[in-house]
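<amino_acid_chain>
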Amino acid sequence: MRIVIQRVTDAKVTVADRTVGEIKTGLLALVGFGRSDTAELPTLPIWKKMLGKMLNLRIFTDDAGKLNKSLIDISGDLMLISQFTLYADCKKGRRPSFTEACHPDIAAPLFDRFVEDTERMAPATIATGEFGAEMHLDFTNWGPVTIILDSDEL
């Protein structure tokens, strides 16, 4: 599993000119699953570790201007977007290969479970896009702050 996290002041996702999700200050998280991820992933310790890390990263400023507060600390919003392209392989040629991405039949329920588990833990609004849809994201990266979490590296 890979998550690209961006600290944002606002974010909106549209599908076919229809707004399907919108947040204020918080995190935009692009979530992807790899070929080695299975339906059992939510039962493994790394699942909770990734969720906890995302929600508790201290990437929001405190009163002294230091990055000391987490999404939970600020009661921030969270937008979760499924993103199989996080597993793009660009080693050969100019066209990315996506053979390392999880098959949609496995990835869709994993993403749904990720959203459900996050909703139980997150402090404020949770918004999502639509799995498998072509989405348009409008957001303001605050900082900019962008963090990459990879389950193979935690």
About this structure: The longest strand covers residues 136-150. The domain at 2-140 is CATH 3.50.80.10 (D-tyrosyl-trna(Tyr) Deacylase; Chain: A;).
